[in-house]
Known about the structure:
By secondary structure, the protein is of the alpha+beta class. The protein has helices at residues 13-17, 19-30, 50-57, 68-71, 81-84, 95-110, 114-130, 141-157, 161-176, 180-200, 206-211, 219-231, 234-250, 252-255, 262-275, 308-312, 315-318, 341-358, and strands spanning 8-9, 33-39, 42-47, 137-139, 281-285, 291-293, 296-298, 304-307, 363-364, 386-388. A 5-stranded mixed sheet has the order 1-2-3-8-5. It has a 3-stranded antiparallel sheet with strand order 4-10-9.
Amino acid sequence: MSTANHRIPLYEPDFAQDPHTSYQRMRLQFGSLVPVLLAPDVPATLVVGYEAARRILGDPQRFPADPRRWQTSVPDTCPIRPMMEWRPNALRSAGAEHARYRAANTAALGAVDQHALRDHVERVAEQTINTFKAAGKADLLSQYAWPIAFRTLSYLLGCPDDVGHRIADGMAKIFDGVNASTGNRILAQAVADLVALRRRRPGSDVTSRLLVHLARLNDTEMGQQLITLYGAGIEPLTNLIVNTLLEMLTNDEFSGDLHAGDASVREALDTVLYRDPPLANFAMTYPPRPVDIGGYLLPADQPVVISYAACNNDPTVGAHRAVGNRAHLAWGAGPHRCPASSHAYLAAEAAILHILDVLPEMDLVGHRDDLVWRPGPFHRSLTALPVAFPAS
């Protein structure tokens, strides 16, 4: 059977609404490696088996993250090209280049004061809740999670709000694959402005630390590190907060007592990172030569995409999973594992604990099954999370 006529599209609304049913069907039909379309006429292989994913993520020689040979076959108008194309940063490079960029990012992020970060998130959470608590209703995505993610990233990177809003606008267009090329241009100019600002006025922030790192990043490289950090920050952190609040509001395991405390929130976070990670399908690699994996021949220069969501729920390993176990792939694995996972986890936990403490009588407006998930091959994101609570 030719896969060319049997590829599964990952960009349609039906897939977004119920991806887990799709993953189950994929396994039954194809096994661990599934022929998919990331966009019309953009073929790829989606990895839905946990063990296969671990092997691929740990083998950067056969599965490098550099997409330059692949993108020569993809038109500039392709809606997901800006999301996947080569950039001189740790996410889209391999070998010595990757090691250089990774070292700079790890050092800059490692110097973040975690206590100060938690204080910042709690302060922003309080300010944000004050903007809507008198109304007795809110959309926790647009009115709570997104402002917190945006202001947290701006705080970490030393980015003024006006520049940050342009970065967020460009990044949203790229994630959605709508006006992505315009988003790419907006994003490039905004990060260039941030780099220029921090060269003139360095501070105690990730951008300033990147500028003085021994990697000696030039302005173009600096801008691309910031694009990666924003891309890995605003959208996924927003989704992690929202998807976990959804669990807290609707999952009987957590919804019985919204004052359950730190342990319950951590369990809900881990449940989301297993079941519905904010980046459901990501960690793209591009084998330069055909690779045989268990009898399935992966073609050269075609994307191999790891389905964190599907792999985490692979029935061959699911029986060994326990509450509190963090062996999931939501942060990636191998040399490209997310270097800011502890920051994202801390920020999400602080944001969730704060709103549950201030608004313990929140209820979801409507039924969980009526919520709408945004189409797209990469993210796992609601369009809104409406809640009601006693006005105060």
